[in-house]
Amino acid sequence: MKAVEVNFDGLVGPTHNYSGLASGNLASARNREQVSNPRAAALQGLAKMKRLHDLGLSQGLLPPQPRPEPGLLRQLGFDGSDAEVLARAAHEAPWLLSACCSASAMWAANAATVSPAADTGDGRVHFTPANLVSQLHRSIEADMTGTILRAIFHHPEFFCVHSPLPATAALGDEGGANHSRLCTAYSNRGVALFVHGRSRQQPGPQRFPARQTLEASEAVARQHGLDPTRVIYAQQRPDAIDAGVFHNDVIAVANRTLLFCHESAFVDQLQVLDQLDHALNGELNLIQVNEHEISLQAAVQSYLFNSQLLTLSGGHTLLLAPQECRENEQVWHYLQTLLKARKGIDAVEVADLRQSMRNGGGPACLRLRVVLEPKALEACHQGVLFSDQLYAQLTDWVERHYRDRLAPSELADPALLDESRVALDELTRILGLGSLYPFQH
Ligand code: SUG
Protein backbone atom coordinates (compact mmCIF):
# COMPACT_ATOMS: atom_id res chain seq x y z
CA MET A 1 0.00 0.00 0.00
CA LYS A 2 1.11 3.50 -0.75
CA ALA A 3 1.38 6.63 1.32
CA VAL A 4 -1.41 9.18 1.02
CA GLU A 5 -1.50 12.89 1.59
CA VAL A 6 -3.94 13.77 4.35
CA ASN A 7 -5.07 17.36 4.57
CA PHE A 8 -5.72 18.41 8.15
CA ASP A 9 -7.80 21.58 8.00
CA GLY A 10 -8.01 24.04 10.85
CA LEU A 11 -11.57 24.11 12.15
CA VAL A 12 -12.56 27.78 12.44
CA GLY A 13 -13.07 28.86 16.05
CA PRO A 14 -16.02 30.81 17.52
CA THR A 15 -14.10 34.11 17.77
CA HIS A 16 -13.28 34.52 14.06
CA ASN A 17 -13.13 38.30 13.61
CA TYR A 18 -11.61 41.12 11.62
CA SER A 19 -9.20 43.07 13.80
CA GLY A 20 -6.63 43.83 11.12
CA LEU A 21 -3.82 42.34 13.14
CA ALA A 22 -1.61 40.84 10.47
CA SER A 23 1.03 43.23 9.19
CA GLY A 24 1.84 42.74 5.49
CA ASN A 25 -1.41 40.84 4.91
CA LEU A 26 -3.41 43.21 2.69
CA ALA A 27 -6.79 41.50 3.17
CA SER A 28 -6.46 41.62 6.95
CA ALA A 29 -5.69 45.37 6.81
CA ARG A 30 -8.45 46.09 4.28
CA ASN A 31 -11.19 44.37 6.29
CA ARG A 32 -10.21 45.70 9.67
CA GLU A 33 -13.22 46.54 11.88
CA GLN A 34 -15.68 44.73 9.59
CA VAL A 35 -18.30 42.54 11.23
CA SER A 36 -17.46 38.86 10.79
CA ASN A 37 -19.69 35.81 10.70
CA PRO A 38 -17.95 33.03 12.67
CA ARG A 39 -20.76 30.58 11.93
CA ALA A 40 -20.48 31.07 8.17
CA ALA A 41 -16.67 30.90 8.40
CA ALA A 42 -16.77 27.53 10.16
CA LEU A 43 -19.41 26.16 7.79
CA GLN A 44 -17.43 27.30 4.74
CA GLY A 45 -14.37 25.50 6.11
CA LEU A 46 -16.37 22.35 6.79
CA ALA A 47 -17.87 22.46 3.29
CA LYS A 48 -14.35 22.48 1.82
CA MET A 49 -13.39 19.46 3.95
CA LYS A 50 -16.58 17.69 2.85
CA ARG A 51 -15.79 18.37 -0.81
CA LEU A 52 -12.34 16.81 -0.53
CA HIS A 53 -13.78 13.86 1.37
CA ASP A 54 -16.43 13.41 -1.35
CA LEU A 55 -13.66 13.46 -3.96
CA GLY A 56 -12.21 10.40 -2.23
CA LEU A 57 -9.31 12.23 -0.60
CA SER A 58 -8.12 11.68 2.96
CA GLN A 59 -9.20 14.55 5.15
CA GLY A 60 -8.70 15.36 8.80
CA LEU A 61 -9.02 18.41 11.00
CA LEU A 62 -7.25 20.27 13.77
CA PRO A 63 -9.46 21.67 16.55
CA PRO A 64 -9.49 25.44 17.22
CA GLN A 65 -7.37 26.93 19.98
CA PRO A 66 -9.10 28.34 23.06
CA ARG A 67 -9.88 32.02 22.47
CA PRO A 68 -10.27 34.52 24.03
CA GLU A 69 -7.07 33.66 25.88
CA PRO A 70 -7.06 35.80 29.05
CA GLY A 71 -3.75 34.13 29.99
CA LEU A 72 -1.95 36.33 27.45
CA LEU A 73 -3.41 39.45 29.08
CA ARG A 74 -2.44 38.27 32.56
CA GLN A 75 1.11 37.74 31.31
CA LEU A 76 1.05 41.37 30.22
CA GLY A 77 0.02 42.74 33.61
CA PHE A 78 -3.77 42.73 33.58
CA ASP A 79 -5.34 41.13 36.62
CA GLY A 80 -8.72 40.24 38.08
CA SER A 81 -11.37 37.80 36.93
CA ASP A 82 -11.43 36.74 33.29
CA ALA A 83 -14.21 39.26 32.60
CA GLU A 84 -12.25 42.05 34.32
CA VAL A 85 -9.07 41.24 32.46
CA LEU A 86 -10.87 41.35 29.10
CA ALA A 87 -12.68 44.60 29.99
CA ARG A 88 -9.49 46.32 31.12
CA ALA A 89 -7.63 45.31 27.99
CA ALA A 90 -10.55 46.53 25.84
CA HIS A 91 -10.18 49.91 27.50
CA GLU A 92 -6.40 50.24 27.85
CA ALA A 93 -4.91 48.17 25.00
CA PRO A 94 -7.55 47.04 22.48
CA TRP A 95 -4.93 45.48 20.19
CA LEU A 96 -3.90 43.12 22.98
CA LEU A 97 -7.51 42.13 23.44
CA SER A 98 -7.75 41.45 19.70
CA ALA A 99 -4.53 39.43 19.82
CA CYS A 100 -5.90 37.17 22.54
CA CYS A 101 -9.15 36.67 20.61
CA SER A 102 -7.89 35.89 17.09
CA ALA A 103 -9.06 32.60 15.61
CA SER A 104 -5.88 32.53 13.50
CA ALA A 105 -5.02 28.90 14.31
CA MET A 106 -7.58 28.07 11.60
CA TRP A 107 -4.78 28.64 9.05
CA ALA A 108 -3.29 25.24 9.66
CA ALA A 109 -0.62 25.63 6.98
CA ASN A 110 1.12 27.71 9.63
CA ALA A 111 0.72 25.09 12.36
CA ALA A 112 3.93 23.21 11.62
CA THR A 113 6.49 22.03 9.12
CA VAL A 114 5.91 18.37 8.37
CA SER A 115 8.40 15.92 6.87
CA PRO A 116 7.05 12.53 5.77
CA ALA A 117 8.66 9.30 6.92
CA ALA A 118 10.33 8.70 3.53
CA ASP A 119 12.41 11.87 3.96
CA THR A 120 13.53 11.80 7.58
CA GLY A 121 16.61 10.35 9.28
CA ASP A 122 14.72 7.92 11.50
CA GLY A 123 11.84 6.98 9.18
CA ARG A 124 9.22 8.70 11.33
CA VAL A 125 6.97 11.60 10.39
CA HIS A 126 8.48 14.74 11.94
CA PHE A 127 6.57 17.87 12.96
CA THR A 128 7.99 21.19 14.15
CA PRO A 129 5.23 23.51 15.36
CA ALA A 130 5.84 26.96 13.90
CA ASN A 131 6.83 29.65 16.43
CA LEU A 132 5.08 32.37 14.36
CA VAL A 133 7.06 35.03 16.21
CA SER A 134 6.49 37.80 13.70
CA GLN A 135 2.91 38.48 14.87
CA LEU A 136 1.88 38.47 18.54
CA HIS A 137 -1.58 36.99 17.92
CA ARG A 138 0.00 34.09 16.04
CA SER A 139 2.96 33.51 18.34
CA ILE A 140 0.59 32.42 21.10
CA GLU A 141 -0.50 29.44 18.98
CA ALA A 142 2.81 27.56 19.09
CA ASP A 143 2.60 25.68 22.40
CA MET A 144 -1.03 24.68 22.00
CA THR A 145 -0.28 23.53 18.45
CA GLY A 146 2.36 21.20 19.91
CA THR A 147 -0.21 19.86 22.41
CA ILE A 148 -2.77 19.28 19.66
CA LEU A 149 -0.26 17.58 17.34
CA ARG A 150 0.93 15.33 20.18
CA ALA A 151 -2.67 14.35 20.96
CA ILE A 152 -3.27 13.36 17.32
CA PHE A 153 0.12 12.00 16.34
CA HIS A 154 0.85 10.33 19.66
CA HIS A 155 2.40 7.02 18.58
CA PRO A 156 6.21 7.29 19.08
CA GLU A 157 6.93 4.51 16.61
CA PHE A 158 5.54 6.61 13.75
CA PHE A 159 5.67 10.24 14.83
CA CYS A 160 8.01 12.78 16.36
CA VAL A 161 6.58 16.16 17.40
CA HIS A 162 9.39 18.60 18.22
CA SER A 163 9.17 21.77 20.28
CA PRO A 164 8.81 25.04 18.36
CA LEU A 165 12.12 26.78 17.58
CA PRO A 166 13.24 29.41 20.13
CA ALA A 167 10.90 32.39 19.95
CA THR A 168 13.23 35.01 18.56
CA ALA A 169 13.11 37.16 15.41
CA ALA A 170 16.27 35.53 14.00
CA LEU A 171 14.43 32.18 13.97
CA GLY A 172 11.03 33.29 12.69
CA ASP A 173 9.26 30.14 11.47
CA GLU A 174 5.90 30.04 9.67
CA GLY A 175 5.61 26.29 9.12
CA GLY A 176 4.15 24.68 6.01
CA ALA A 177 3.27 28.03 4.42
CA ASN A 178 6.96 28.44 3.57
CA HIS A 179 7.79 24.82 2.88
CA SER A 180 6.86 22.58 -0.05
CA ARG A 181 7.68 18.96 -0.62
CA LEU A 182 8.08 17.69 -4.16
CA CYS A 183 8.27 14.00 -5.03
CA THR A 184 7.62 11.55 -7.85
CA ALA A 185 5.12 9.66 -5.65
CA TYR A 186 4.09 10.37 -2.04
CA SER A 187 5.86 7.20 -0.79
CA ASN A 188 9.13 8.06 -2.54
CA ARG A 189 11.90 10.16 -1.07
CA GLY A 190 11.03 13.79 -1.64
CA VAL A 191 12.77 17.11 -2.11
CA ALA A 192 12.13 19.83 0.47
CA LEU A 193 11.87 23.42 -0.75
CA PHE A 194 12.20 25.86 2.16
CA VAL A 195 11.45 29.49 1.35
CA HIS A 196 12.57 32.37 3.57
CA GLY A 197 12.07 36.10 3.47
CA ARG A 198 15.36 37.09 5.09
CA SER A 199 18.52 35.74 6.68
CA ARG A 200 21.52 37.09 8.55
CA GLN A 201 23.03 37.97 5.16
CA GLN A 202 19.89 38.84 3.22
CA PRO A 203 18.03 41.81 4.68
CA GLY A 204 14.63 41.24 3.05
CA PRO A 205 11.80 43.68 2.29
CA GLN A 206 11.47 47.38 3.18
CA ARG A 207 7.82 47.82 3.93
CA PHE A 208 6.40 44.61 5.40
CA PRO A 209 7.95 41.98 7.65
CA ALA A 210 9.72 38.93 6.24
CA ARG A 211 8.26 36.33 8.53
CA GLN A 212 10.46 33.31 7.78
CA THR A 213 14.23 33.23 8.19
CA LEU A 214 16.75 30.99 6.44
CA GLU A 215 18.22 30.04 9.81
CA ALA A 216 14.82 28.76 11.00
CA SER A 217 14.42 26.65 7.85
CA GLU A 218 17.91 25.19 8.30
CA ALA A 219 17.16 24.30 11.91
CA VAL A 220 13.93 22.52 10.97
CA ALA A 221 15.66 20.57 8.18
CA ARG A 222 18.39 19.53 10.63
CA GLN A 223 16.07 18.39 13.37
CA HIS A 224 13.95 16.39 10.92
CA GLY A 225 17.09 14.60 9.75
CA LEU A 226 16.57 15.56 6.10
CA ASP A 227 19.24 14.60 3.60
CA PRO A 228 21.02 17.92 2.83
CA THR A 229 21.33 16.94 -0.83
CA ARG A 230 17.54 16.85 -1.05
CA VAL A 231 16.89 20.23 0.55
CA ILE A 232 16.71 23.51 -1.36
CA TYR A 233 16.61 26.93 0.23
CA ALA A 234 15.17 29.83 -1.73
CA GLN A 235 14.61 33.45 -0.82
CA GLN A 236 11.25 35.07 -1.47
CA ARG A 237 11.45 38.18 -3.64
CA PRO A 238 11.48 41.13 -1.20
CA ASP A 239 9.40 43.23 -3.60
CA ALA A 240 6.76 40.49 -3.68
CA ILE A 241 6.57 40.51 0.14
CA ASP A 242 6.15 44.27 -0.06
CA ALA A 243 3.32 43.72 -2.55
CA GLY A 244 1.43 41.53 -0.05
CA VAL A 245 3.02 38.08 -0.46
CA PHE A 246 3.49 37.55 3.28
CA HIS A 247 3.92 33.77 2.91
CA ASN A 248 5.38 31.75 0.05
CA ASP A 249 2.05 29.95 -0.35
CA VAL A 250 0.53 33.19 -1.62
CA ILE A 251 2.75 32.94 -4.73
CA ALA A 252 3.63 29.25 -5.22
CA VAL A 253 2.08 25.84 -4.69
CA ALA A 254 3.54 22.40 -5.41
CA ASN A 255 2.26 18.87 -5.56
CA ARG A 256 4.31 15.80 -6.49
CA THR A 257 6.52 16.96 -9.41
CA LEU A 258 4.36 19.96 -10.28
CA LEU A 259 5.28 23.50 -9.24
CA PHE A 260 2.75 26.22 -10.02
CA CYS A 261 4.16 29.66 -9.30
CA HIS A 262 4.40 33.27 -10.38
CA GLU A 263 7.60 34.51 -11.99
CA SER A 264 8.11 36.87 -9.00
CA ALA A 265 8.22 34.12 -6.40
CA PHE A 266 11.96 33.69 -5.72
CA VAL A 267 15.21 35.60 -5.84
CA ASP A 268 17.33 34.04 -8.65
CA GLN A 269 14.28 32.11 -9.75
CA LEU A 270 15.96 30.40 -12.71
CA GLN A 271 18.64 28.98 -10.48
CA VAL A 272 16.12 27.78 -7.89
CA LEU A 273 14.11 26.03 -10.60
CA ASP A 274 17.26 24.42 -11.99
CA GLN A 275 18.19 23.11 -8.56
CA LEU A 276 14.71 21.70 -8.10
CA ASP A 277 14.72 20.02 -11.48
CA HIS A 278 18.12 18.54 -10.78
CA ALA A 279 17.01 17.22 -7.37
CA LEU A 280 13.99 15.64 -9.07
CA ASN A 281 16.20 14.00 -11.72
CA GLY A 282 14.83 16.21 -14.45
CA GLU A 283 11.20 15.48 -13.62
CA LEU A 284 10.13 18.94 -12.46
CA ASN A 285 6.90 19.96 -14.16
CA LEU A 286 6.84 23.74 -14.01
CA ILE A 287 3.88 26.02 -14.63
CA GLN A 288 5.31 29.50 -14.24
CA VAL A 289 2.95 32.40 -14.71
CA ASN A 290 4.36 35.68 -15.95
CA GLU A 291 3.34 39.24 -15.11
CA HIS A 292 1.55 39.65 -18.48
CA GLU A 293 -0.61 36.65 -17.87
CA ILE A 294 -1.44 37.51 -14.26
CA SER A 295 -0.10 40.57 -12.50
CA LEU A 296 1.38 40.14 -9.05
CA GLN A 297 -1.38 42.38 -7.78
CA ALA A 298 -4.08 40.12 -9.30
CA ALA A 299 -2.32 37.07 -7.87
CA VAL A 300 -2.41 38.59 -4.38
CA GLN A 301 -5.96 39.82 -4.73
CA SER A 302 -7.36 36.53 -6.13
CA TYR A 303 -5.10 34.20 -4.11
CA LEU A 304 -4.69 31.97 -7.18
CA PHE A 305 -1.46 30.42 -5.87
CA ASN A 306 -3.12 29.68 -2.55
CA SER A 307 -5.16 27.02 -4.31
CA GLN A 308 -4.82 23.40 -3.32
CA LEU A 309 -3.27 21.08 -5.88
CA LEU A 310 -4.84 17.69 -5.33
CA THR A 311 -4.12 14.29 -6.85
CA LEU A 312 -7.43 12.52 -7.45
CA SER A 313 -7.80 8.73 -7.38
CA GLY A 314 -7.39 8.36 -11.15
CA GLY A 315 -4.12 10.32 -10.99
CA HIS A 316 -5.62 13.53 -12.33
CA THR A 317 -4.70 16.85 -10.74
CA LEU A 318 -7.39 19.20 -9.47
CA LEU A 319 -6.74 22.83 -8.64
CA LEU A 320 -9.12 23.89 -5.85
CA ALA A 321 -9.08 27.67 -6.03
CA PRO A 322 -10.79 30.36 -3.98
CA GLN A 323 -13.98 31.72 -5.52
CA GLU A 324 -12.23 35.09 -5.90
CA CYS A 325 -10.32 33.54 -8.85
CA ARG A 326 -13.54 33.18 -10.81
CA GLU A 327 -14.40 36.80 -10.06
CA ASN A 328 -11.14 38.09 -11.49
CA GLU A 329 -11.44 38.19 -15.27
CA GLN A 330 -7.70 37.95 -15.97
CA VAL A 331 -7.22 35.03 -13.58
CA TRP A 332 -10.26 33.12 -14.79
CA HIS A 333 -9.27 33.57 -18.41
CA TYR A 334 -5.77 32.33 -17.61
CA LEU A 335 -7.18 29.23 -15.92
CA GLN A 336 -9.33 28.37 -18.92
CA THR A 337 -6.28 28.64 -21.17
CA LEU A 338 -4.24 26.55 -18.75
CA LEU A 339 -6.79 23.74 -18.80
CA LYS A 340 -6.77 23.68 -22.58
CA ALA A 341 -2.96 23.54 -22.63
CA ARG A 342 -2.97 20.30 -20.56
CA LYS A 343 0.22 21.10 -18.71
CA GLY A 344 -0.49 19.04 -15.63
CA ILE A 345 -3.63 20.64 -14.18
CA ASP A 346 -6.66 18.70 -15.39
CA ALA A 347 -9.54 20.40 -13.62
CA VAL A 348 -10.33 23.57 -11.69
CA GLU A 349 -12.95 24.01 -9.00
CA VAL A 350 -13.65 26.97 -6.76
CA ALA A 351 -14.58 27.07 -3.09
CA ASP A 352 -16.41 29.79 -1.21
CA LEU A 353 -14.13 30.68 1.68
CA ARG A 354 -14.97 34.36 1.81
CA GLN A 355 -14.93 34.66 5.58
CA SER A 356 -11.39 33.32 5.79
CA MET A 357 -10.27 35.11 2.62
CA ARG A 358 -11.11 38.47 4.20
CA ASN A 359 -8.35 37.75 6.69
CA GLY A 360 -5.95 36.61 3.97
CA GLY A 361 -6.55 32.87 4.29
CA GLY A 362 -7.34 30.82 1.16
CA PRO A 363 -7.78 27.08 0.57
CA ALA A 364 -4.10 26.23 1.04
CA CYS A 365 -3.76 28.32 4.21
CA LEU A 366 -6.49 26.32 5.86
CA ARG A 367 -4.74 22.98 5.59
CA LEU A 368 -1.71 21.18 6.97
CA ARG A 369 -0.46 18.50 4.59
CA VAL A 370 0.65 15.27 6.22
CA VAL A 371 1.84 12.38 4.07
CA LEU A 372 1.19 9.11 5.88
CA GLU A 373 1.85 5.45 5.19
CA PRO A 374 -1.21 3.26 5.85
CA LYS A 375 0.08 2.07 9.24
CA ALA A 376 0.83 5.61 10.38
CA LEU A 377 -2.64 6.69 9.28
CA GLU A 378 -4.09 3.92 11.44
CA ALA A 379 -1.87 4.96 14.35
CA CYS A 380 -3.02 8.57 14.44
CA HIS A 381 -6.03 9.63 16.50
CA GLN A 382 -9.04 8.50 14.45
CA GLY A 383 -11.52 10.96 15.97
CA VAL A 384 -10.17 13.85 13.85
CA LEU A 385 -10.48 12.00 10.53
CA PHE A 386 -13.32 13.27 8.40
CA SER A 387 -16.45 11.25 7.65
CA ASP A 388 -20.01 12.05 6.63
CA GLN A 389 -21.06 11.41 10.20
CA LEU A 390 -18.45 13.78 11.62
CA TYR A 391 -19.48 16.39 9.07
CA ALA A 392 -23.11 16.17 10.21
CA GLN A 393 -22.10 16.34 13.89
CA LEU A 394 -19.82 19.33 13.41
CA THR A 395 -22.32 21.22 11.26
CA ASP A 396 -24.89 20.80 14.01
CA TRP A 397 -22.32 21.77 16.65
CA VAL A 398 -21.39 24.98 14.77
CA GLU A 399 -25.03 25.88 14.25
CA ARG A 400 -25.77 25.52 17.95
CA HIS A 401 -22.72 27.34 19.34
CA TYR A 402 -21.45 29.97 16.89
CA ARG A 403 -22.59 33.57 16.51
CA ASP A 404 -23.50 34.80 13.07
CA ARG A 405 -22.07 38.25 13.66
CA LEU A 406 -19.13 39.45 15.67
CA ALA A 407 -17.72 42.97 15.69
CA PRO A 408 -14.24 43.63 17.13
CA SER A 409 -15.95 45.86 19.72
CA GLU A 410 -17.75 42.78 21.09
CA LEU A 411 -14.63 40.75 21.85
CA ALA A 412 -14.58 41.66 25.55
CA ASP A 413 -18.12 40.38 26.05
CA PRO A 414 -17.70 37.80 28.85
CA ALA A 415 -20.50 35.76 27.26
CA LEU A 416 -18.24 35.16 24.24
CA LEU A 417 -15.61 33.53 26.47
CA ASP A 418 -18.25 31.31 28.08
CA GLU A 419 -19.82 30.36 24.75
CA SER A 420 -16.44 29.54 23.29
CA ARG A 421 -15.44 27.33 26.23
CA VAL A 422 -18.76 25.48 26.24
CA ALA A 423 -18.41 24.87 22.49
CA LEU A 424 -14.79 23.66 22.68
CA ASP A 425 -15.54 21.46 25.68
CA GLU A 426 -18.25 19.71 23.67
CA LEU A 427 -15.94 19.52 20.64
CA THR A 428 -13.30 17.56 22.55
CA ARG A 429 -15.98 15.00 23.34
CA ILE A 430 -17.12 14.81 19.70
CA LEU A 431 -13.51 14.32 18.56
CA GLY A 432 -12.64 12.01 21.47
CA LEU A 433 -9.66 14.15 22.43
CA GLY A 434 -10.16 14.17 26.22
CA SER A 435 -9.29 17.27 28.25
CA LEU A 436 -7.14 18.90 25.61
CA TYR A 437 -7.55 22.51 26.69
CA PRO A 438 -6.08 24.10 29.84
CA PHE A 439 -9.51 25.49 30.83
CA GLN A 440 -10.77 21.90 31.10
CA HIS A 441 -8.25 21.02 33.82
O1 SUG B 1 -1.01 35.11 9.50
N1 SUG B 1 -4.25 36.29 8.99
C1 SUG B 1 -3.28 35.24 8.81
C2 SUG B 1 -3.50 34.55 7.50
C3 SUG B 1 -2.60 33.35 7.36
C4 SUG B 1 -2.68 32.75 6.02
N2 SUG B 1 -1.88 31.59 5.98
C5 SUG B 1 -1.11 31.19 4.96
N3 SUG B 1 -0.81 32.01 3.97
N4 SUG B 1 -0.59 30.03 4.99
C6 SUG B 1 -1.85 35.76 8.90
O2 SUG B 1 -1.59 36.82 8.32
C7 SUG B 1 -5.44 37.96 10.27
C8 SUG B 1 -5.95 38.09 11.68
C9 SUG B 1 -6.64 39.37 12.00
O3 SUG B 1 -6.50 40.32 11.28
O4 SUG B 1 -7.30 39.39 13.01
C10 SUG B 1 -4.40 36.89 10.17
O5 SUG B 1 -3.73 36.60 11.13
Describe this structure in words.
- By secondary structure, the protein is of the alpha/beta class.
- It has a single domain (4-440), classed as Succinylarginine dihydrolase (L-arginine/glycine Amidinotransferase, Chain A), CATH 3.75.10.
- The protein is built from 17 helices and 15 strands.
- It has a three-stranded mixed sheet.
- α8 (214-223) links the parallel β7 and β8.
- The longest helix has 18 residues, at 414-431.
- The model has no long low-confidence stretch (mean pLDDT 98).
- It binds N~2~-(3-carboxypropanoyl)-L-arginine (SUG).
- The site of N~2~-(3-carboxypropanoyl)-L-arginine has 22 residues, from loops.
- N~2~-(3-carboxypropanoyl)-L-arginine is lined by residues 19-22, 25, 28, 102, 104, 107, 109-110, 135, 138, 177, 246-247, 249-250, 359-361, 365.
